[in-house]
């Protein structure tokens, strides 16, 4: 009964979002949160203070994704109104008007690099609007952005899913490095197939075949340095691989290597170097800020994450409100429980870099006060529905995590793991994907299911390192169907009530990704590693 009630909300959510007259996420997710709340109170008998504290925690936690979404919408609205998007569209058309080249440069290599720097769903939020600006249909771009943003995710945000996601397991440094190494190899094999499937969402297979040489040059330009670096480091593979891949892809596209010739249909498409430099200024500044605030060797990351209390105040029974020197706003011991929640104003990629970049760029592009005000007002309005969707999602997730090893989430994971036994290698990645599906993060998936994967590996005498690598891969491929990311990219592109349509399309490459992961784990990994 516990397993049925644990799975039921997820099955119901999927049904509500993919049925013929599908409910939009901003209605479906809050309703599912209510269902989970009832199950927790009636069946699991969870204390009302624990439930209330988790709901309050979700209301604080939702500030992270919603401010990222607002920041991305704001930046993209600014790019459109200022004319930067139009200049970049013409410039990319001059590099090569071939749509496959443009998709691989922006949707694959550029997004790969952004994932390495930031994570938090920012690659789709930044890359997708550029592709729409180039004339590609928004709904298909949303699907492509989600599918493409999978290979680099395990090393996203300078390796956070790997080094932080598995942190509670207290693994040796050498084992974490080997997990990263195996993870990169599995992703590398998936990269032979997944970008092609993503491209097929926008262009025909005939076009893909005609441009196959360029596609694989772009793929290998990212994946080879990514895989090589992952043998010695788990922080920079995606960032460095994406940067090298982007550089190579632009040069190769400019020379037309491996690309079918396509006529440039943009009228008056010639742009000066000065225009391009000005149009690239906001994006360049955005990337620069992201990188310098994420690299541990620089002082900014530590400053923005400084949790030393600056001032605090007791808010009655609600809890202790605390603000740190790094402007981390925290609510501690909510309703007398041990539950805490926080929002990192400076570190979450929202105010910095999106809002800061826009405020700096407004005078550079000489935007009027009325246009600037309109950009902010429109962006606020566009975040209303995603806010309700994400509140529902985070309340649901928080309540499903209540109970530690007896939580609804752990019941699902442990039941599936025990049912498959020694064949768990075939299914391990899918558990990681389930974690990412409803938690919205490869890191949270690893934090949630890392212990389940480790105990299953020990019980079945499978390689713990390999199973944890599959968990990390699963959390990355789960990004394709992750509710938070779907809501985010839909809101940034102003797509309404299409979440179910997106999931139905992106679940196929996710399943294939899992099959590739299992095959590599069974037949390729043993050749290179002692498992």
UniProtKB/TrEMBL annotation:
The keyword Cell inner membrane applies. InterPro entries: Lactate_perm. It holds the Pfam family Lactate_perm. Keywords: Cell inner membrane, Cell membrane, Membrane, Transmembrane, Transmembrane helix, Transport. It is found in: Cell inner membrane; Cell membrane. One of its GO terms (cellular component) is plasma membrane. It comes from the Bacteria. Its main location: membrane. It is a multi-pass membrane protein. One of its GO terms (molecular function) is lactate transmembrane transporter activity. The chain crosses the membrane at residues 28-46, 58-79, 99-132, 144-164, 184-205, 212-230, 236-254, 275-295, 315-334, 346-366, 386-403, 423-442, 462-495, 507-529. Belongs to the lactate permease family. Uptake of L-lactate across the membrane. Can also transport D-lactate and glycolate. This is L-lactate permease. It comes from Rodentibacter trehalosifermentans.
């Amino acid at each position: 009964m516990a397993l049925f009630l644990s799975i039921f909300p997820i099955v119901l959510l999927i049904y509500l979002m993919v049925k013929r007259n599908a409910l939009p996420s901003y209605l479906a997710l809050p309703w599912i949160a209510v269902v989970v709340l009832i199950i927790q109170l009636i069946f699991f008998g969870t204390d009302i203070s624990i439930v209330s504290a988790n709901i309050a925690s979700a209301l604080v936690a939702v500030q992270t994704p919603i401010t990222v979404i607002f920041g991305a919408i704001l930046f993209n609205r600014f790019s459109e109104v200022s004319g930067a998007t139009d200049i970049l569209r013409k410039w990319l058309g001059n590099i090569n008007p071939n749509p496959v080249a443009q998709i691989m440069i922006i949707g694959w290599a550029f997004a790969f690099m952004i994932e390495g720097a930031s994570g938090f769903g920012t690659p789709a939020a930044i890359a997708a609007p550029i592709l729409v600006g180039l004339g590609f249909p928004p709904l298909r771009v949303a699907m492509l952005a989600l599918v493409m943003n999978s290979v680099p995710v395990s090393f996203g945000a300078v390796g956070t899913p790997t080094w932080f996601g598995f942190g509670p397991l207290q693994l040796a440094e050498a084992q974490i490095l080997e997990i990263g190494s195996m993870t990169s190899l599995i992703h590398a094999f998936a990269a032979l197939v997944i970008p092609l499937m993503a491209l097929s969402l926008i262009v025909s297979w005939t076009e893909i075949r005609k441009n196959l040489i360029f596609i694989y040059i772009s793929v290998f330009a990212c994946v080879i340095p990514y895989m090589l670096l992952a043998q010695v480091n788990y922080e920079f593979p995606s960032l460095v691989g994406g940067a090298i891949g982007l550089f190579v892809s632009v040069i190769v596209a400019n020379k037309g290597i491996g690309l079918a010739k396509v006529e440039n249909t943009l009228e008056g498409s010639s742009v000066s170097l000065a225009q391009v430099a000005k149009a690239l200024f906001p994006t360049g500044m955005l990337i620069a800020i992201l990188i310098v605030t994420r690299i541990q060797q620089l002082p900014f990351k530590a400053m923005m994450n400084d949790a030393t209390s600056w001032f605090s105040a007791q808010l009655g029974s609600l809890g202790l409100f605390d603000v740190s020197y790094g402007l981390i706003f925290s609510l501690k011991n909510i309703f007398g429980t041990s539950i805490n929640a926080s929002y990192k104003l400076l570190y979450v990629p929202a105010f910095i870099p999106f809002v800061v970049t826009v405020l700096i760029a407004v005078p550079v592009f000489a935007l009027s006060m009325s246009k600037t005000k309109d950009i902010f007002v429109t962006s606020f309005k566009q975040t209303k529905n995603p806010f309700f969707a994400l509140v529902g999602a985070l309340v649901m997730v928080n309540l499903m995590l209540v109970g530690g090893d007896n939580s609804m989430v752990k019941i699902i994971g442990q039941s599936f793991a025990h049912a498959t036994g020694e064949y768990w290698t075939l299914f391990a990645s899918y558990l990681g994907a389930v974690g990412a599906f409803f938690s919205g993060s490869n890191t949270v998936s690893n934090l949630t299911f890392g212990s389940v994967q480790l105990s299953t590996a020990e019980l079945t005498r499978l390689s713990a390192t390999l199973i944890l690598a599959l968990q990390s891969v699963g959390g990355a491929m789960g990004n394709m169907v992750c509710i938070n990311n779907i809501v985010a990219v839909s809101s940034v592109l102003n797509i309404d009530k299409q979440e179910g349509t997106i999931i139905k399309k992106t679940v196929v490459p996710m399943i294939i990704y899992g099959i590739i992961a299992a095959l590599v784990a069974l037949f390729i990994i043993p050749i290179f590693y002692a498992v």
